[in-house]
Amino acid sequence: MILLGSLVLSACISGGPEWYPLSSLDLAPMRQGWGAPAKNMAVEGKPMTLGGKRLENGVGTHAPSTMWLELGGKAERFTATVGVDDEVMGKPGSVVFKVLADGLTLFDSGVMKPGMQPKQVDLDLTGLSKMLLIVTEAGDSIDYDHADWGDAKILATAAPSTMSAPAEDRVVLTPKPLPTPRINGAMAWGVRPGSPVLYTIAATGERPMEFRADGLPDGVTLDSRTGRLSGSIAKAGEYPVVLHAKNAKGVAERTLMLVCGETLALTPHMGWNSWYVWENHVTDASMRAAADAMASTGMIDHGYMYVNIDDCWAIKPGAKDPLLSGKERDERGRINANGRFPDMKGLTDYIHSKGLKAGIYTSPGKLTCAGFVGSYHHEAEDAARFAEWGFDFLKYDWCSYEDVSGGHGRAELRKPYELMATLLKDQPRDLVLNLCQYGMGNVWEWGKEVGGHSWRTAGDLGGSFEGIASAMFRDGFGLAERAAFSGPGGWNDPDYLLLGYISNWKGSTSPTPLTPNEQYTHVSLWCLLGAPLIFSGDMTRLDEFTLGLLTNDDLIDVDQDVLGRAGSRVAMDEATATEVWAKPLSDGSVALGLFNRGEFEGTVKARWIDVGLSGPRAVRDLWRQKDLGQFADGFEAVVPRHGCVVIRVK
Ligand code: GLA
Q1: Staple partner for 101: which of 1, 128, 388, 506, CB 3.0–4.6 Å?
Q2: Looking at 284, 397, 493, 553, which residue is catalytic?
Q3: pTM (2 decimals)?
Q4: 182-260 belongs to which homologous superfamily?
């Protein structure tokens, strides 16, 4: 018999089933998006209250939340009262409670909000072995998602136990690059007439390697040893350049389309950004180290090229730290960098000397998101300054522009971006413009029109460390309906690749909270979306697994495909949470992603008919870079929890 306070939870029949309150179990393996699981309390430690009624017993949690339980076939029943705790009454919280077991969904509460009447759960668990209690953020943010598993208890003949999510090995699927040459990365490159050309041929294979380029336009030369193109093109036009890479083991050839005109970013940007690893302590040294690592790890050989400083390089008004304080602008109104960036021109020269490109960040507001000086009323000086410093990329982050925008109408949303895009076009070098305003006003519908080359489609993917997986699933898969708005010259940007070591927002970095399969899904989805591939983890701590995720040339070819069509969902099975995505490619083949968003392993089938094909068709497994043979009418795979398989169908 279990006694809880004065509450008798079961009749005592020796050897018979007993009620085990959820709160009596070890909650350490439970995962949630904010705070810690609370026993017999709501998540903030206040009394648990649902629909005005106080509950003495239960587990208070916060979306997204998962709790795995081992039942071992010994459980009979699960009962609970679920809802959003009254402590967030009047706030915009919204969650969905789900109970799953052995691959089946036993309960789905639908969307629940503060103040709604709680729902009763009463489920038969006979014979089931693994149960999962989930609270999702119901497709919006996790704000105020205080969720209660009120009076939750399991009737069983042996005590159930909580457990961690099923362990996954960090299997490296990407084969090591061959010693023979292979030319990788973007095969279309836009440059404006007269702007400096800086393009490094990305090639894997044993060094030394000798490069050759046939059909170079006048004004552009190639360094045959480094594979770097430089110079400038005076006359607009399309210049197909046949690139060759030769080493002791063989030769590779690929055609690069140099397009001289007004369109930049013909394929999605590839590179690295400082935010999720260095946050507000980024320095000149961390940027140089990132550039060094991009070269030494070989990422540059797969097409990565931008090394971008995020927020926190300017002066911070009111800062105590002498390195961050000082004169915001010089007498000519030109913005100053803070003491952590003593020589911006020296820094971009350094990055360029590695064959890479440099990016910078500011806000149209008076202050950036982290409270550093922004460009408000100094847009022209700043555009000129960034160009003069030698930057090739600008992320323009709404932030405190909120205070001066005068609203969120299309005109107000467009205005600061239009202004900056126009100013950048006046500069004597090309700067790619990344709009960062979290998707407001359906930015994908007008981002390109105002001169943006990519636009963030949602809030910060890593705003909450524990919430990265659910944000990645929500924001990534959520782009299925927006595929038509992404393409050469302007890309949907669902934020950075949060892999390797990233900020845990507690003053240090931790390994990404994504499971190995979720990491494969993250990269696969971004490649199928044709999203920018901007890694934002620690460049100096890249292990074999993370590097494998970032440098699979078959996947990168899908992302960088010159057709530039974004992939989208072609089939879905709600019951198993599995789906198939397709991205048409320039050679007439199709990349297909077989995804399993569900909590249990499942079979996913991609049918040729769903993508307008008929069989038989040759299939290649892209992560394993392996041809699998011919398949008659489709391709079926067993896909792990939160995992994927990506194929190319010829
Ligand atoms: C916002 C952006 C992030 C990052 C930070 C910097 O939150 O969305 O990507 O640039 O600002 O403060």
Answers
A1: 128
A2: 397
A3: 0.90
A4: Immunoglobulins (2.60.40.10)
